[in-house]
Amino acid sequence: GDSVTQMEGPVTLSEEAFLTINCTYTATGYPSLFWYVQYPGEGLQLLLKATKADDKGSNKGFEATYRKETTSFHLEKGSVQVSDSAVYFCALGGFYNQGGKLIFGQGTELSVKP
Amino acid sequence: NAGVTQTPKFQVLKTGQSMTLQCAQDMNHEYMSWYRQDPGMGLRLIHYSVGAGITDQGEVPNGYNVSRSTTEDFPLRLLSAAPSQTSVYFCASSYIGQRDEKLFFGSGTQLSVL
Fold it and tell me: Sign (positive/negative) of CA torsion A1, B100, B54, B45?
């Protein structure tokens, strides 16, 4: 079945460091791919998305490129801030006529120190 | 802008008790869903609905019931609570139609079953 695998956390970085969170997927067909972020005590919110191979999603300095050949959607940011501390979820969706139905990875906790 | 509203925010139950987690959205979304979040396991889909009168099972439906009598409401019922149902529950909704529909999440319900 469809699944998403993320790198395990927690990831601890110093402010202004480069961030990579790895995400790979298994899917039949041509899924859409997403990154959601969860700040402490809150629900998840969409960070970025891509709907087809080679698309790049970007938002708030974060980027991810849909790589069909490696079935990956790695999240990157060139210079993290303390305010980026959160849990990041990679997700797979785009199921026909099923709206926002998503399959999530296990989440990666990011902690950024000043 | 209410968005997705979940109640209660916290709940403690004894084994065998029943309860209903409430979810309401005011965005006229066709799709609604329930997820549970457990450490190291990400979010797992319990049940979902693509419109009033239509529901379907997700990855972990056992022990939970749902119904969708209106577009706005999607309650989750625990008929006989078990300690394994201790978790954080999120309701989420979206439109249906595009492959990259954004999911809107509620703020969650933290449930403890003793």
Answer: positive
- Separation of alpha carbons B47 and B76, rounded Å: 9
CA distance A58 to A47: 8
* A13 backbone φψ class: left, alpha, beta (φ>0; ψ -120 to 50): beta
Q: Which two tokens stand for residue B89?
A: 């529950």
DSSP B70-84: SSSB--EEESS--GG
Q: Does any CB of chain B come closer than 8 Å to the CB of residue A32?
A: yes
Task: Choose from B1, B56, B99, B109 for mutation: most chain A CBs within 10 A.
Answer: B99
Spatial separation of the C-alpha atoms in residues B14 and B33, rounded to whole Å: 25
**Any A CB within 8 A of B48 CB:** yes
A and B: number of Cβ contacts within 8 A: 78
Asked if A104 and B93 come within 8 Å (Cβ–Cβ), the reply is: no
Q: Does A7 touch chain B (CB under 8 A)?
A: no
* pLDDT tens, position by position, B30-84: 999 999 999 888 899 999 999 999 999 998 999 999 999 999 999 999 999 999 9
Report yes or no: A7 and A105 within 8 Å, Cβ to Cβ.
no
Strands B109-113 and A56-59: unpaired
Residue B102 confidence class, pLDDT cut points 50, 70, 90:
confident
Phi/psi-derived region of residue B16, left when phi > 0, alpha when psi is between -120 and 50, beta in every other case: left
Instruction: Say if the Cβ atoms of A43 and B99 lie within 8 Å.
Output: no
